[in-house]
Every structure is written in structure tokens, then in C-alpha cells.
């Protein structure tokens, strides 16, 4: 048992990363990994331990995702409280390492699509091993991953050069907001910039609209305090920002860029509006694909 435990511990970090990408919750990822350990102790020695554990964790995660989707579809007037054993710090740490925009996009996928995409595109698991997890054929598993890939990697009507320029401007805006750098914000904001916001994004009584670079820059604490949890993403086909503290979309910024400056941005926080947004991944800075 000691040898088996050592072999399992050598796989734990990878399995936790896999489960977190599938579930977006540190607590649930830990539960899935623990369930895999319990099943391993019952199974004893197995051939190709890494592959066996990957399959088991993936099946457990698929069950969790399907259960979660079923609960979401049940009508309810009650807003659920966080689980008693939830680990916000763990979620934030893992979200930092994985990427919040990716977690937001993955959360919009169906359970089978999410499993197929994570296993194949993020962990290079071949489709003949993914198929039994999903109880599908390899061809069907490949189609699921392909469909997910198209949903994850968005397209923009902007020409590549304009898309890259907008990305640079939005990244500069985010860097200034994170650092609370007023002068840097003034450099990236157009003199007549306009900030609109949903009431849900603002303190009680705050103006829904601000005009002028200095007024908007000085008020960035409304968004700036959350900038640590922000990442650039495609929001309805344009370069924008998602704010997802634990991988769950809390705010989105629809940003308008002209030249090298932000001319307007809208802070979207209304749940119905957030749910209607089409959020997809941007590539690494300097690229236009995911």
C-alpha cells in the first residue's frame, strides 16, 4: 500500500490540475482526486497507473458536471449559498495558474464537450482513450472536442492587425488599472472617454455614466480593485475584459478602442446580460488565435 500511495501522490498534482480545468472548483477537484484514490485502493495494482487515474478522474468529473447541469435546469427562487467546505483561496490560486478567461469559456460548454476538450486539447489524451470516458466512439469524441474548440477559440470581424492593436491597448489599460497608476491610465484613456456601467457593478448612488479621462481614471477603483481577477478576452467578437475571481464570470467590460486609446467601456454586471454574452479566448499577446 505504501508503494501504491507513493505512486498516487506522484500523480496528484497532475490529476488536480486536470479536475480543476474540468470543474472550475478547487474543492470539487480535490473531491474527484480523492474518489480516484478510493477506487484505486479497491482496485489494487493496475496497468498504466497514470492512464487509469486519468480515466477515473475524468469519469468522476463528468458525473459532477452532469449533476451540476441538472441542478441548474431545475427552477428555483433560492440563491444557493457556497458549500461549507468551499476553498475560495484554493480556487483563486488555481484560477491564477489556469487562466480565468479559459475557465469562463469552459463553463459555457456542455459536460461531454468540456471533458473531450480538456483531455485532448489541454492534456493530449488520444481520442481512443477519451471515447470510453464519454461512452462514445472515438469519432464522436473527436467531434465533441472539435465543436468545443470552435466555441472556445473565438473569431473577430476585426482584421488581424487591428485585433492585435486593440489587444495591446486593452492590456495597457488592465496593467494601469492593476497598478492604480493614474498617469498611465490617463495615457491610455482618450480625453473624452465615456464609462457606462450596470447599477449592479457600482456602489449605491454612483453615476451610471462618467465622462472625461480624469473622471474615469480617478474612479477606476470601481473596477480597479477587481483588476487582479481580470483578463482580456473576446467579448461578443471584440477585445474586452472578463472579471472572474474564482473562475466564475462576475463582470465583463465591453471596450471601444480608437487608435491607441480607449474611447469608451461598459461594465456589464447584470446577470441576464452576462449570460447573453459570447465570451471566447484571445491568443497570447502578439497572436490573434487561441
Automatic annotation (TrEMBL):
InterPro entries for this protein: ECF_Sigma-70_Domain, NTF2-like_dom_sf, RNA_pol_sigma-70_dom, RNA_pol_sigma70_r2, RNA_pol_sigma70_r4_t2, RNA_pol_sigma_r2, RNA_pol_sigma_r3/r4-like, WH-like_DNA-bd_sf
A Gene Ontology BP annotation from the UniProt entry: DNA-templated transcription initiation
UniProt keyword terms in alphabetical order: Sigma factor, Transcription, Transcription regulation
GO molecular function term, any single one: sigma factor activity
UniProt family annotation: Belongs to the sigma-70 factor family. ECF subfamily.
PANTHER family assigned to the protein according to its UniProt record, in alphabetical order: ECF RNA POLYMERASE SIGMA FACTOR SIGI-RELATED, SIGMA 19 FACTOR
Subunit structure: Interacts transiently with the RNA polymerase catalytic core formed by RpoA, RpoB, RpoC and RpoZ (2 alpha, 1 beta, 1 beta' and 1 omega subunit) to form the RNA polymerase holoenzyme that can initiate transcription.
Official protein name in the record: RNA polymerase sigma-70 factor, ECF subfamily
Record lineage: Bacteria, Bacillati, Actinomycetota, Actinomycetes, Pseudonocardiales
Amino acid at each position: 500500500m505504501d508503494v501504491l500511495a507513493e505512486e498516487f501522490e506522484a500523480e496528484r498534482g497532475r490529476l488536480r490540475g486536470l479536475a480543476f480545468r474540468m470543474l472550475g472548483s478547487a474543492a470539487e477537484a480535490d473531491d474527484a482526486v480523492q474518489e480516484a484514490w478510493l477506487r484505486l485502493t479497491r482496485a489494487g495494482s493496475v496497468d498504466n497507473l497514470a492512464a487509469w487515474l486519468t480515466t477515473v478522474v475524468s469519469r468522476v468529473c463528468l458525473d459532477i458536471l452532469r449533476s451540476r447541469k441538472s441542478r441548474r435546469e431545475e427552477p428555483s427562487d433560492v440563491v444557493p449559498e457556497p458549500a461549507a467546505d468551499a476553498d475560495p483561496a484554493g480556487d483563486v490560486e488555481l484560477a491564477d495558474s489556469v487562466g480565468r478567461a479559459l475557465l469562463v469559456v469552459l463553463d459555457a460548454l456542455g459536460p461531454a464537450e468540456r471533458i473531450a476538450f480538456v483531455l485532448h486539447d489541454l492534456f493530449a489524451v488520444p481520442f481512443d482513450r477519451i471515447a470510453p470516458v464519454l461512452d462514445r466512439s472515438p469519432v464522436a469524441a473527436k467531434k465533441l472536442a472539435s465543436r468545443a474548440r470552435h466555441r472556445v477559440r473565438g473569431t473577430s470581424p476585426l482584421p488581424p492587425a487591428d485585433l492585435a492593436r486593440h489587444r495591446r491597448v486593452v492590456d495597457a489599460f488592465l496593467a494601469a488599472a492593476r497598478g492604480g497608476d493614474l498617469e498611465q491610465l490617463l495615457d491610455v484613456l482618450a480625453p473624452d472617454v465615456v464609462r457606462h456601467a450596470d447599477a449592479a457593478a457600482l456602489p449605491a448612488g454612483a453615476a451610471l455614466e462618467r465622462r472625461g479621462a480624469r473622471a474615469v481614471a480617478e474612479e477606476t477603483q470601481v473596477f480597479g480593485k477587481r483588476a487582479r481577477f481580470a483578463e482580456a478576452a473576446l467579448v461578443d467578437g471584440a477585445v474586452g475584459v472578463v472579471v472572474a475571481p474564482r473562475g466564475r464570470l462576475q463582470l465583463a467590460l465591453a471596450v471601444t478602442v480608437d487608435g491607441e486609446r480607449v474611447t469608451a467601456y461598459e461594465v456589464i454586471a447584470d446577470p441576464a446580460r452576462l449570460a447573453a454574452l459570447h465570451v471566447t479566448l484571445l491568443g497570447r499577446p502578439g497572436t490573434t488565435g487561441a
